[in-house]
Amino acid sequence: MVKGILGAAGLAAVMTFGAAGGAQAAMATCPDTAATDDREFSLASADVASIGCYAFGDGNDKLDKLPGFTGTLLDKSDSNSDGTMPLLLGKTDENDLQSGLYGTFSFIVPTGYDTLYISFKSGQGGKKNDGNPDYAAFSVDVAALALSTLSFNWAIGSGHEDSPYTAFNAIDSDLNQALSHVSVYGDPSVVPLPAAGWFLLTALVGLAGTRWLNKGRAAA
């Protein structure tokens, strides 16, 4: 069950923090609640201007099943067959991006996409105290980026902490079930129809209307 789909409105959760060297980086938490008994996901990057909390909920992170979602799955860290292109970097074995409570990762920026969605799914692994939500997805605007790769810091925890590089304030908590997998979705860029195309489309509509009128007159 989806607990929240924030979309563009979720950009209210976007924050910036001082990264190493004084650079400003984008950072967001999702679902960005103050409750310490909820699981929180964090994503930060110095390579992008903004990160938003897009969706979160119980169960698996199948964003393509959400109402109104138009993106497609591009890559998934625990499968070589899911998705349409290998984007995630640093995968040297099956455990990469499939465990832990915090870390870093990079991926290749695909062409033809304005927005990417990065989702994190926690494992359920027999923990006695199951926190919620089970997954969180972040939206990343890549329309104006000139970089070939992006790097991110991520964390799963409960409560809040100023630093995105740690697993918040309860690393050993049962709420902090370790990462199961990371998925990357992409929303294709909208290619505007050239002016000549609009003229052709208008002409075809006009021609169809003329033929319909002529048929009506002939029938009369």
UniProtKB/TrEMBL annotation:
Signal peptide bounds: 1-25
UniProtKB keywords: Signal
Name of the protein: VPLPA-CTERM sorting domain-containing protein
Organism in which the protein naturally occurs: Roseospira navarrensis
Organism placement in taxonomy: Bacteria, Pseudomonadati, Pseudomonadota, Alphaproteobacteria, Rhodospirillales
